[in-house]
TrEMBL record:
UniProt keyword S-adenosyl-L-methionine, yes or no: no
GO MF term list: penicillin binding; peptidoglycan glycosyltransferase activity
Organism the protein comes from: Hellea balneolensis
Highest taxon of source: Bacteria
Protein name, UniProt field: Penicillin-binding protein 1C
Annotated keywords: Glycosyltransferase, Transferase
Residues in Penicillin-binding protein transpeptidase domain copies: 7-161
Transmembrane segments: none
Amino acid sequence: AVIALDKVGSQRFETALKLGGLDVRRPGTFGGEQNLALALGGLGLRSEDLAMLYAGLANGGVVRPLVWQENQQPKKQYRIMRESSARKITKILRQAPTPDGRVPHWLSQDTDGIAYKTGTSYGFRDAWAAGYSKRYTVIAWVGRPDSAPRVGATGRKAAAPLMFEVFDILPNSHENTAYTKIAEAPKGLGRFGGAPDPAPLIIFPPDGSEILANTFGETATGMSFAARSSISKSLNWYVDGHPVKRNPSGDIVWKPDAPGFYQVSVVDERGHTTISNIRVMGIN
């Protein structure tokens, strides 16, 4: 983030935010000089400002001031980035891992894809999540009015589940968004990440999740497992060491025998293994 801001220019970046109508606030210790600390949380924004920015990404990079009445017309809009750049960012944020226990949108029918980002301020004083679908933008903030720390309350753990619950209440567009593999980063950027992990990535069920089941045994509906691998097309699934077979459609569907704790593992053809420890609970 610091390298990117250095290329763009901190003054140019802050000016773009102000032209977009954002109420930019910086601590008094910065004086009147913009600097690279803006990339590390050295900038104060209200929830309304975040809503404008993320709605701007949904609108192809065009930021508009918020309106509070149905017949009110927005003030002058401002383009903060090219439409192509906004689409690329949306594609990345839409495929961010969902909170624990929530199925990714591309595995659910008639579910909007939510592009979102979380954040946690220094000392756990603020936990926030900002996301947008094709029709709505939602900002969730969790914290104390007196700015007292809430140790362990991160944006992902505290604010993201709340944000997704709000999206569950809102009407969706009933348009499915397929998963699309993001192209690899250029070599100049990819080298900072080190060697990629060859093990498969479990999409569902995520590690540590608690899953509700209506029925158990062979007559149960079951739950679909999903994973992706960058080096292997053939993946084998196991629950507590027992193989899980594919159904006639070719999907991996597991039907738990009873409530309890289970270890789910996926193995690729080279032996790389990933494990998720889950808990299955019945509905009383």
